[in-house]
Write a structure and sequence with these properties.
Elements (H helix, E strand, L loop, with lengths): L1 H7 L7 H11 L10 H8 L3 H10 L5 H11 L13 H19 L4 H11 L4 E5 L4 H11 L6 E4 L4 H12 L4 E6 L5 H12 L3 E6 L5 H5 L2 E4 L12 H17 L1 H18 L5
Parallel strand pairs: 1-2, 1-3, 3-4, 4-5
Helix pairs in contact: 2-3, 2-4, 3-4, 6-12, 7-12, 8-12, 12-13
Length: about 280
C-alpha cells in the first residue's frame, strides 16, 4: 500500500507543507482513503486549503478526486503489469502514469480554453522558454507559427530577453506563453513578472499547480515531469503544449485552417518535403 501511495507523488516536487501531508498519509495506509480533507489537515497540522493544493500538485482537481484514487489503491486490484521492472521501464511507466493523470485532468478544459482565448487574441505571441524549457518552447513555437501570424520564441536569457519582450509588446502583443520547468530559472520568473507589469496576460506550462511560475501566471497549465532518470522527462509538458495549441486552433478555426492550407500549398510548390 505504501508503495502505491508513494507512486502518486512520483515526479512531483512538493513543498515542505505538502511533504508533511504526504507523510501523514503514508503513516496511515489503512485509513488514508477514509480521511476527509479537514481530518487530514488536522492530523498533518496544516490548513484545509493546503490539502486541496496538495491534491492539485499531484494532478487532481481537488482532494475528493485524490481520495477516490486512494480508495482504489486500498483494493486488492493491481494493474496488469509485469512482476518486475528494470529502472528504464519504471521511468517510462512513470511517464505513462503522468499521462493518465493529465488525461483525467483534461476532463475539464476550463483552464485550457481560457488560456487558448488569451493567446489567440494577441496578434503577436511571445513564447518564453529558457534552459531545459527552451526545446519545448521551440517545439510549440514551430507549430504555432503554422497557424498564428507572428510567433516569437524567446529562448535566451539576459537583458536581451526583456528587450525582446518589450519589442513584442510594442508590436501589439497582449499575452505571452511561458514554459517554466524545474529547476525554475530565475530569469523565466522575472520575465513573467515583467510581462504582467507591462499589462500582458501570461499563460504558463509548468510541472505543478504550486510551482513558482504557476503562482505568478494568469492561467497555469500543470503537467508533471518524470524524475526517475538522471535528467527529467518532459513528456507531460510536451503533451500539454500540443493540447493548448489544438485548443487555440479550435478557438479560432477559420484563420488556422486558412494558414495551414497556405502552408501546404507553399510546401508543395517549393518541394519542401520528400514525396
Amino acid at each position: 500500500m505504501n508503495e502505491r501511495l508513494l507512486a502518486l507523488t512520483d515526479g512531483v516536487r512538493l513543498t515542505p507543507v505538502q511533504r508533511r501531508i504526504a507523510q501523514c498519509l503514508l503513516e496511515r495506509p489503512g485509513s488514508a482513503a477514509a480521511l476527509s480533507s479537514n481530518e487530514l489537515a488536522t492530523l498533518a497540522e496544516v490548513s484545509q486549503p493546503s490539502v486541496t493544493r496538495f491534491a492539485m500538485a499531484l494532478g487532481y482537481e481537488g482532494y475528493p478526486a485524490l481520495r477516490k484514487e486512494m480508495r482504489w489503491l486500498t483494493t486488492d486490484e493491481t494493474p496488469s503489469r509485469p512482476a518486475e521492472h528494470n529502472p528504464m521501464q519504471l521511468a517510462v511507466q512513470g511517464e505513462a502514469d503522468h499521462l493518465v493523470r493529465l488525461r483525467d485532468q483534461l476532463g475539464r478544459l476550463d483552464d485550457v480554453e481560457r488560456a487558448a482565448r488569451l493567446l489567440v487574441e494577441t496578434p503577436v505571441l511571445p513564447v518564453i522558454g529558457l534552459r531545459a524549457a527552451a526545446p519545448l518552447a521551440g517545439y510549440f513555437g514551430y507549430f504555432a507559427a503554422k497557424v498564428r501570424p507572428d510567433v516569437r520564441i524567446l529562448d535566451t536569457g539576459g537583458t536581451n530577453l526583456l528587450d525582446r519582450l518589450d519589442q513584442a509588446r510594442h508590436a501589439g502583443a497582449s499575452a505571452a506563453l511561458a514554459v517554466v520547468l524545474p529547476r525554475y530559472p530565475r530569469e523565466s520568473l522575472d520575465a513573467i513578472r515583467e510581462a504582467k507589469a507591462a499589462g500582458l496576460g501570461v499563460v504558463v506550462i509548468t510541472d505543478s499547480a504550486v510551482s513558482p511560475a504557476a503562482q505568478a501566471a494568469d492561467v497555469a497549465l500543470p503537467a508533471a515531469v518524470g524524475t526517475q532518470l538522471v535528467f527529467d522527462l518532459h513528456t507531460g509538458p510536451m503533451a500539454m503544449a500540443m493540447v493548448l495549441l489544438q485548443a487555440m486552433c479550435d478557438a479560432d478555426p477559420e484563420p488556422a485552417q486558412r494558414r495551414l492550407e497556405e502552408f501546404e500549398a507553399a510546401a508543395n510548390r517549393r518541394h519542401i518535403f520528400q514525396a
